[in-house]
Amino acid sequence: MSLEKLKENIRRDLHVKSDDFYKPFMKRIESIIDSSNKLSDETFNKWLWTLYRDFNNDFFCLQILTNIEKYKAELLAYRNIPQAPLTNNIIEGLNSHLEGRLQKLRSFQTIKHARLWFNGYILKKRFTKFTDCRGKFRYLRGKTVVEMTKKERVTLPLCF
Question: In 10 A of CB 140, how many CB atoms?
């Protein structure tokens, strides 16, 4: 489970969006989780202990803190992997972009037209060149997904 997913699950369990009672607790949890990649284990534990001290008479808060403590090793395991990404925003961004596009499929009059549009969308994504690659991924700039994944001996027919 990612840290973002953990925060969203805690928000849902505490009904933070509809009830203000647990908002101070949630803000402090978010602060700790958002800073987790910069904190040492000792500081992370100290911050969790402070939360426990302040909210130890609330059953729901204790449950959440117990869960975080129980899964802490898994939640913070990425810190021990060199050059591990700190976010999954690329995937989330693609998913939300695709979700927005899929909403338009409802407006097609037939399934055939929706399939045709979706196939075109996927082809466009596969053949669009990367433009904003930096660092160790700089070599991808100007190349397409298809170029990077196809076998050398395979020649692709012209689609467009």
Answer: 17
Over its length of 160 residues, how does the chain's per-residue pLDDT go in tens digits?
577 788 888 999 999 888 899 999 999 999 988 888 788 888 989 999 999 999 999 999 999 999 999 988 888 887 777 776 665 566 666 677 777 777 766 778 888 888 888 888 888 888 889 888 888 888 888 988 888 888 888 887 776 5
Q: Quote the number of domains for the chain.
A: 2
Spatial separation of the C-alpha atoms in residues 25 and 2, rounded to whole Å: 20
Query: Residues with Cβ < 8 Å from 135, sequence gap 6 or more?
Result: none
Residue pair 48/21 in contact by the 8 Å Cβ criterion: no
Structure tokens of 156? Answer: 């692709």
For the record, the structure tokens of 122 come out as 């996927």
Q: State which of 20, 46, 80 marks the end of a domain.
A: 80
pTM of the predicted protein model: 0.54
Sign of the Cα pseudo-torsion (151, 154, 159, 160, in order): positive
Instruction: Note whether 75 and 100 are same-domain residues.
Output: no
3-class SS at 26? Answer: helix
Contact yes or no for 17/23 (Cβ under 8 A): no
Whose structure tokens read 């899964």? 71
Q: Confirm if 33 and 3 have CB atoms less than 8 A apart.
A: yes
